[in-house]
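Chapter summary example.
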Amino acid sequence: MKKLFIIVMLMLAMAAQAEQTSSRSVVSEQTQTALAYPQICITCSRSAVSEQAQTALAYPQICITCSRSAVSEQAQTALAYPQISYIEETKNWYYVYDEKGKRICGLSRGSVGELKGWGSDFFVAKRYSYYHICDAKGRTLKTMNVSDVGEIVGVSNNTITSRKGSWIFIWNKEGKKIRVMNAH
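The structure predicted for these 184 residues follows.
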């Protein structure tokens, strides 16, 4: 823990020095928050400097205890896929916005199809006889046949709920079936 404190202090000192030499701030509020909340190394289960802080300061994330990479899948996903706050529908376009209200992308209705719903970092659209699970930037993560899935009744956080006949299916955002229930 003492080593972690020393590394964080050195990083803050270097950032402060860089800030003095430039007219803009080098350390963002997000980076300062990330420095305040350390991440746990997936190899040795000890505290490591968070990946967001190290990325922002151009340092690779290495656990200070076991000297191995400590980038978890959750951290990689969080950085790769921005969080979706809202999807605006216009006559010909879908506009995807993040939690800060910044537009992530614009997608034409013709290329996406009918929007069925969105979760924290993905959305689902139906085009012809397929459902497309797409990331926040509109890239297709998984394509599923409507005849296999049924009718999508809800999309929330990291799951998709569909109904086919008298069965309810729950899928994860990767398109894997995680639960089946009788609807009656």
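To summarize the output: The CA atoms of residues 74 and 80 lie 10 Å apart.
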